[in-house]
Write a structure and sequence with these properties.
Blueprint: H1 2-25, H2 27-61
Amino acid sequence: MFTRIKRISCCESRMDARIENFLLWHQGFKLFLIYIGLPLFTMAAVCVCTTAAALSLAFLFGWM
């Protein structure tokens, strides 16, 4: 279990370094990603989770 956690941590730090290096060279994309891309991704994730919960309850109570 410890080796898996260590391996995931290593991959996470490498990916973090690559993303940081990429965003240092592409300043315009960084601003677009931070102010437009991530909020849209967050809203989409909330919408999907809410829809899944609502449909589950609808099937459970026989509304569908």
